[in-house]
Amino acid sequence: VSGQRALREALQLSTTVSGGAGISSRSTCEAGPCLGWQTRRCENRSGQSLWPPCHATAVNSNAADALLCHVLACWRAFRDSFCFPQALRSTGLMTTDPRLRDCMKQLHQSVHESIGTVMMDQELFRKCVGSNIVLLTQAFRKKFIIPDFETFASSINQLYYNAQLQDGGQVADYIPQLAKFSPDSWGVSLCTADGQRYSVGDTTVPFCLQSCVKPLEYAIAVHEAGSEAVHRYVGKEPSGLKFNKLSLNEDDKPHNPMVNAGAIVTSSLVKVKHLLESKYMSLFHASGFVFFDRFQSERETGDRNYAIGYYLKEKKCFPEGVDMMAALDFYFQLCSIEVTCESGSVMAATLANGGICPITGERVLSSEAVRNTLSLMHSCGMYDFSGQFAFHVGLPAKSGVSGAVLLVVPNIMGLMCWSPPLDRLGNSVRGIHFCQELVSLFNFHNYDNLRHFAKKLDPRRQAGDDRNKSVVDLMFAAYSGDVTALRSKEGQMDIAVQFLTQTCKVNPLVTDRWGNTPLDDAIEFSRDGVVKLLQEYQTIYAHTDPPVRLQGVFSHQDPVLDSDEHGKLEALEGLV
User: Fold this and answer.
1) CATH number for the domain harbouring residue 539
2) What Cα–Cα distance (Å) separates residue 223 from each residue in 228, 286, 357?
3) 278 with 242: CB under 8 angstroms?
């Protein structure tokens, strides 16, 4: 309601301007602390603020302008002063988002080219955001996968601080570079399928992917060579053994690509020239953070992996013509890739988004590769804890001895958690705790939505969704004449009222917003049969139960609904 009121105000302003009414403008800093640019705050003669700046050409603007004005007018209902970067962050978009590069470039260019204060009028604003109108419309209309992102981020914050209290575990020290990390380091970053992003904690500290690279390596191999070709050399079953065990399945193949033996064989199937293609590099450094300087340390302490390599060579597990030492070096290089939580979350989100990078829109992996990868992550991704993790969390994930946990919520988001202290199975103590608490709060577990299951929070739903669905269900019930779900339909009024009075025994004295009871309406519309039914029922009701006015389930206005919708809801409430 308040958003629509703001829109009407903006449209009234545009009409006033076109009619020649006096408007004064003065410069006030709306976003100086964020970008160093200012906006023109328009005021009428009474001094009332009239932002957003839709007045100049709102009446004659094209459809895109009208759409943007609507979005900004609705946004005004939630913010007294409009700061564009802050508004973006509240929807989950970052000012560094590649999709907003042109928009932010225009804003910064306007700052640098100006002398003095930048006047952010409609023309400049349209110039800056015109190329991103669709994305911004989705953002400010709350059409992203997580509409109320601020509330969701607040919940993630709470989960983060709860997990921070976990102080068990030991930092891995068998690789010198890993032993240097502080056990107090702890960060969580997430990226949704729409590119909404949030980070809390030590999310810009680089760390090695280690085993978290295995699902990405496998996905690239399947994307390039196909699933059948890859699984000619590596299996699909959990091993039930330690990840670095010298062991093969009954077919003399590594059990799966998520253990060291399987990952080494998989690395021999990935062509380096393919990995260096721009689409794969965008997967690894979507946030601009990838280093290979840990490779030497990894190589010097890789005795167990060398043993596995020679064992695989003895069993002829490599494709014909593969150089075992080259395959091992490549595997070490992949494990040594350094990322941050922020860039890692984009990798996870690419898997959650079916192989399309959410912040570039580029398809990186095929749907088949993503499906197979998530299946293996779900069954084999968490070392010897994979079964318990699948049971308690129910989501695809991969952990690494650097303390990273890459978690995928299919079709919704990807997360990267990082905390160096590990439990006895090699998984991050804080990372495991965070994942378990996440699915305890939100219905992300694969089986949370089964019928009769205890309800959890669903961040994909907007406020009022349940109520709106109830209204739609009532309308369809009215159309089909389903008196068990609704109570009225043309030609079946007497049956519906009889059902309500005799079976449901509802209160016949409920009044609508005009003060009319059902009997009043029946008399007004000459429903003689209904009048008779209600008169008889009122007499019975008065003697069996004191006539108490029902408190309507829609008695408190919801800002999601306008006044007409509230009227319809109250009318429906009067019927029931």
Assistant:
1) 1.25.40
2) 11, 19, 15
3) no
The answer to whether residues 130 and 84 touch, using CB atoms and an 8 Å cutoff, is no
183 lies in the same domain as 307: yes
Percent of the chain scored above 70 by pLDDT? 69
Is residue 171 located within the same domain as residue 56?
A: no
Is 391 in the same domain as 436? yes
Cα–Cα distance for residue pair 349/343, rounded to 1 Å: 10
The tally of domains found in the chain comes to 3
Q: What is the length of the chain?
A: 576
pLDDT exceeds 60 at position 57: no
Give the SS3 label for residue 43: strand
Cβ–Cβ < 8 Å for 87, 79: yes
Torsion, Cα of 310, 312, 314, 317 (10° steps): -150
Domain holding 432, by residue range, is 150-441
Tell me how many degrees the CA angle 313-319-325 measures, rounded to the nearest 5. 50
Instruction: Identify each DSSP E strand in 181-241 by its residue range.
Output: 187-192, 197-201, 207-208
Minimum mean pLDDT range among 95-109, 398-412, 418-432, 436-450: 95-109
Hey, how many other C-beta atoms are within 10 angstroms of the C-beta on 227? Answer: 16
Residue 271 located in a structural domain: yes
Give me the mean pLDDT over the 162-187 stretch.
Answer: 92
Verify that 192 and 281 share a domain, yes or no: yes
User: pLDDT confidence of 434, banded at 50, 70, 90?
Assistant: very high
DSSP characters over 339-356: E-HHHHHHHHHHHHTTTB
In a domain, 481, yes or no: yes
DSSP letters for 253-300? S-S-TTSHHHHHHHHHHS-HHHHTSHHHHHHHTTTS--B-TTHHHHHH
226 and 244 in a common domain: yes
What the block records as the tokens of 330 is 């490549």
The per-residue pLDDT for 187 is 98
305-315 pLDDT tens trace? 999 999 999 99
Q: Evaluate if residue 557 carries a pLDDT over 50.
A: no
The pLDDT of residue 171? 95
pLDDT of residue 279: 62
Are 81 and 7 in a shared domain? yes
Query: Considering only CA atoms, which of 383, 382, 384, 385 is closest in space to residue 396?
Result: 382
Q: Do residues 398 and 405 touch, judged by C-beta distance below 8 A?
A: yes
Residue with tokens 């699915």: 439
The structure's pTM equals 0.71
Positive or negative torsion for Cα 353, 359, 361, 364: negative
Confidence of residue 453 (pLDDT cuts 50, 70, 90): low
Is the pLDDT at 198 greater than 90? The verdict is yes
| Residue 297 is assigned to a structural domain of this protein | yes
Which residues are CB-neighbours of 466 under 8 A, at least 6 positions away?
none
Neighbour tally for 443: CB within 10 Å = 17
Least Cα distance to 83 among 28, 132, 42 occurs for 28
Read off the tokens for 3. Answer: 């958003």
